[in-house]
Amino acid sequence: MSDFSADLKARADLAAIVGETVALRQVGERWLGLCPFHAEKTPSFHVHATRQFYYCFGCQAHGDVYQFLMASRQLSFPEAVAALAERLGIPLPPRFGQGDGPSQAERAPLAKLHTAAAEFFAAQLAAPVGAAAREYLAGRGVTYAGCDRFQLGYSPGSGRALSLWLQQRGTPPALALRAGLCQPRRQSGGAAAETGDTIGWEELYDRFRDRVMFPIADERGQVIAFGGRALAADPARPAPKYLNSPETPIYTKGRVLYNLDRAREAIRRLGYFILVEGYLDCLSVFMAGFENVVASCGTALTGAQVHGLCRYARNAVVNFDPDSAGANAAEKSIGLLLEEGCKIRAVTLPGGLDPDQFLRQQGASGYAEALKSSPGYFAYLAERARRRFDLRRGEGRVAALNFLLPYVARVQDAIIRAELTDELAQQLQLESAVERRQLRQAAAQRRATLPNPGTAATGPGGPGWGDLLPAERLLLRALLAWGEEEREERNQLLTALAGEHLLAGLASNPLVECIAAQPALPPDLAALAAALPAAERQLLAEVSFTREPGSGEPLSAAAVHGAIQALRERQLRRRRRELQQLLHQPEVARDSARMTALLGELQALDRALSGAAPAQRMGAAAAGT
């Protein structure tokens, strides 16, 4: 973040800006209202006035003033900075935006060129040259209304149609090359061929040839790229069935979802989205009346795409093709959606049909029924496991469990994880007490594989405010509240926690490590949240917004010291219990030297615990002993 944008952020009143969109009521230092990013009846959207940070406990939307402006108004970061500067009456510095990504001066010509190209392709589809493309689309059930609504087009097979049209309009060849609409004829030509600095129109030809064209738009509806579906295969010149635009200053494949510009309002209104695999599937589902549908743009779904989608809803229906590739893509998508805390259902259409084929056979009513009866993602995955592995053999059951456990581990709620393990044991017919115990232990620890036999469950479940010990809560409050004046005390605290491993095995440990890596004091909550996995992000929000008696009072050095002492005492007591267990083992009783060493350590621990009087009152309650 530049100095200018950071200064603007410091001057902004986040509560006032959010209040223009959300009806907020003040509760202490917090403001509370209905989330603007998903449908809800009970307020779960919080704004922290002092720290200038928002968080929704319903959909986990979070961030600072820039992230709110970007999400609520669909702005890029430079546009959000410009909007905030205008609101505060502060002029933008010269050449602003060039350090924060592509400048507007670079983006605008590319966006304008893509709009023109979309119009050209649409005209070609309507012209005589587009007859075969129209016939193909009609055979796939795409009507004239569908072509018009989705701006479908056709790229002629000559290889020069678009290039000549752009040349006639006075388009610089370097711009067409940079946009990915054209490419150089020569396969290697140094920097000139790559950048277009000296390239001429005679050296370029069309990237898309003899393809049905699907314009890809950003969330505001601006065309920024294309996907092209080949009409005919040429054995002499093999080409991919689908070809996408390359990445450009206005298009990043892993961040854009097809049809999100049309679907976002329906997603927000209905509270869920349908995720399909291809352009035609998306178009068919949308035109059948299910307008909350999106598709990835010819690539595997990414975390960035899921994160952007979950700003609108956190209920998902995954409906990929039933073939092997589609099933594998569905599995990966489910994992990414779970990371964002989504509730997921998975649709498997009968007869091995994809959504487009099913709609043409069964119609919208049949598809609505398929959505209504779609199982939860776990039942879908368990069925996949039953088909892939031989559950009659121990090796097959272990393989099935290791296939499913990564999905269980991504579930943040410990109670839901426990319920899933019971369901899993039943569906996989686990009769062995050992297998059931190992499964429960792995789920409790959020492991992705089965533990070794005899391993105990030592870690916390899904971390939340209720999982924290009082000592953890107090120390987290200190680390989030301390500023430059407390830098020395903060460093001493972090040294003690890391050097003595006081948080080992506790729910707060991952969050504390991330806070320790933050250079700003006090930590920037928005930047910290952006760097955290979903589970730790939820914990950060709970720490920031949960009010406890005395939580508004300044933290004293004595209170922080007491918390550290409580964690030290907890460590001592845990080690004492381990020693007592060791002393009762037969092999230790037969080893006099080891017995003497363990008894000596036990006596030393007892002396240390008897001298821990300052922390005694915090004692077992604070340290969880």
Report on the architecture of this protein.
It is a single chain. 51% of the residues lie in helices and 10% in strands. A hairpin with a 5-residue loop joins strand 4 (53-56) and strand 5 (62-63). The protein has a 5-stranded antiparallel sheet with strand order 1-2-3-4-5, sandwiched between helices. With 625 residues, it is of the alpha+beta class. Helix 16 packs antiparallel against helix 17 (394-409), helix 18 packs antiparallel against helix 19 and helix 25 (557-583) runs antiparallel to helix 27. The protein is globular, with a radius of gyration of 29 Å.
Q: Could you give the distance between the termini?
A: 44 Å
SS element count, helices: 28
Q: Average pLDDT value? A: 81
* Helix proportion: 40-55%
As a percent range, the share of strand residues is 5-15%
Strands ordered across the widest β-sheet: 1-2-3-4-5
Kindly name the structural category: alpha+beta
User: Cα-atom Rg, whole angstroms?
Assistant: 29 Å
Outline: globular
